[in-house]
Design a protein that fits this description.
This protein is α/β, with parallel strands linked by helices and 300 residues long. It has helices spanning 12-23, 56-69, 132-135, 151-160, 178-186, 230-234, 275-299, and strands spanning 2-8, 28-31, 43-44, 54-55, 73-75, 79-85, 88-93, 98-106, 128-129, 143-148, 166-171, 190-191, 196-200, 207-210, 215-217, 220-224, 262-264. Strands 1, 2, 5, 6, 7, 8 and 17 form a 7-stranded mixed β-sheet that branches. A 5-stranded parallel β-sheet has the order 9-16-10-11-12, covered by helices on one side. Strands 13-14-15 form a 3-stranded antiparallel β-sheet, with no helix packed on it. The longest helix has 25 residues, at 275-299. This is Thioredoxin reductase.
């Protein structure tokens, strides 16, 4: 499917961007899961126009209705890959749907990732990776384990079958959906029921210790907790980050990134991490992306 504008993130920034872009008569699609939206668990007491506390899920529900009124397509799937095209971008979803868009708005928030292992940071670049798409090639013919709790982990394990000779998978939520379990097993991926508790190795990963004290020998550990975070997803695009922390996307006052056609808004651009700030930036991003699309169409 082809769109004018694709928005990643169903939080306050993404929804506001979608409302403005849709009302400008663009063909807009927004990706995200309502159950994982930052608004779904927020409680707001300092938001303009409300005298009393308002639940974030109420704002989310109202925002969804506004998106529909603006004729924005809502797709409750995570994006696992973005590829630049000659004119625009191709986005691939967790269910392998392919969407193209002239402009892209990044509004997926920030990933508050907790370490899975105690010594995890000591092994980053020495066998521990957070990006299957970036580092799979280095494990050609090797043994790896994928640890995660969502769609990006499942996709990552499947993707690694093109490279690694042996793949183990540990789902860190309570239960792996039966259809996903079957799909992984059909690709020869070995699903672990015992939790990995420790990284084995001195200067590089040699394996993981499981909760029954047994050792599983692996060369690489891919940790994919939750939906693919912004840094992992954006790494191949060359997007410039905040030079002080490298945790946020750098934008100008029009919410433009250094990559033509890509805009960003909300928590992903840095503090203050407030709904009001996210909404304001979403408005600007939606309008800026709309202007960009109009320019591209005029010049085509």
């Amino acid at each position: 499917m082809n769109y004018d504008i694709a928005i990643i993130g169903l939080g306050p920034a993404g929804i506001q961007a979608g409302i403005h872009a849709g009302r400008r008569k663009n063909k807009v699609i927004i990706f995200g899961k309502t159950s994982e939206s930052a608004l779904s668990y927020a409680h707001l007491e300092n938001y303009f126009g409300f005298k009393e506390k308002i639940e974030g899920k109420e704002l989310l529900s109202a925002g969804i209705e506004q998106l529909k009124k603006a004729e924005v397509t809502i797709l409750e799937e995570d994006i696992i890959k973005i590829e630049p095209l000659e004119k625009g971008f191709k986005l691939i979803t967790e269910k392998e749907k392919e969407i193209t868009a002239i402009a892209l708005i990044l509004a997926m928030g920030i990933k508050r990732k907790k370490s899975f292992f105690k010594r995890e940071k000591d092994f980053i670049g020495k066998g521990v990776s957070y990006c299957v798409d970036c580092d799979a090639w280095f494990y050609k013919g090797k043994r790896v384990i994928v640890i995660g709790d969502g769609s990006s982990a499942i996709w990552g394990a499947k993707f690694l079958t093109q490279f690694a000779k042996e793949i183990y998978f540990y789902f860190s939520k309570k239960e792996l959906p039966s259809e996903e379990k079957k799909a992984l097993e059909e690709k020869g991926i070995k699903i672990l029921t015992l939790k990995p508790v420790e990284i084995i190795g001195e200067n590089e990963v040699k394996g993981v210790k499981l909760e029954d004290e047994s050792i599983l020998e692996v060369d690489g550990i891919f940790i994919e907790q939750g939906a693919k975070g912004p840094l992992e997803l954006l790494a191949p695009l060359g997007i410039e980050l905040d030079p002080e922390t490298f945790n946020y996307v750098k934008v100008d006052k029009e919410m433009k990134t250094n990559v033509e056609g890509i805009f960003a808004c909300g928590d992903i651009t840095g503090p203050p991490l407030q709904v009001a700030k996210a909404v304001g930036e979403g408005c600007i991003a939606g309008l800026s992306a709309s202007d960009y699309v109009s320019k591209v169409k005029r010049e085509s």
